[in-house]
């Protein structure tokens, strides 16, 4: 009976060991499958990021090759609630799509300009700084003084407001031309 008990214990021990080895094998295969799945996901995400960066670069290049400028992207960025770089890419994407997308872009730009002009007027009425585009521009107080005299505005503050509105409307070349004449 002693030998039977030893044999039984030995058999149970071998059985448990084989089950443990099987569990280890299954777990190792599962981990390997998870690792492969993770590697595939990482590779797929990496490829997606590479394609996205290439597409974004194409979109930004399309923007820079177009007739749209920084101020168009700036006004649309406010309108769309995104960064200026994202706005440039979105403009480029619409240009690349062509046709209908460009027509929609043009309407967005009109709407964005109207919204920006309204916000300038409402900022004046609420005693807020209405010159956020002016402050981001290259123009300074001396430019506002020169332009106020040239345009016949009462104060440089009025000229700043006019500069702001011209920037919103995408008329920065009008400001440049006026400055050239004002300084002659």
In summary, what is this structure?
It contains eight helices and no strands. It is an all-alpha fold and 184 residues long.
Structural commentary:
The protein is mainly alpha-helical. It has one domain (2-130). It is 84% helix and 0% strand. It is built from 8 helices and no strands. The longest helix has 64 residues, at 2-65. The protein starts with a helix and ends with a helix. The model has no long low-confidence stretch (mean pLDDT 83).
* Structural class computed from helices and strand pairing: mainly alpha
Please provide the count of β strands.
Answer: 0
**Radius of gyration of CA atoms, rounded to a whole number:** 33 Å
Describe the global form.
elongated
What's the number of helices? 8
Distance between the termini: 121 Å
The tally of structural domains comes to 1
Q: Estimate what percentage of residues fall within beta strands.
A: under 5%
Largest sheet: none
On the 0 to 100 scale, the average pLDDT is: 83
- Low-confidence region ranges: none
The secondary-structure element order is HHHHHHHH
Percent helix = over 70%
Helix-strand layout with pairing:
Layout: H1 2-65, H2 70-80, H3 84-97, H4 100-125, H5 132-136, H6 141-151, H7 156-168, H8 172-182
Keywords:
single chain, 184 residues, mainly alpha, 8 helices
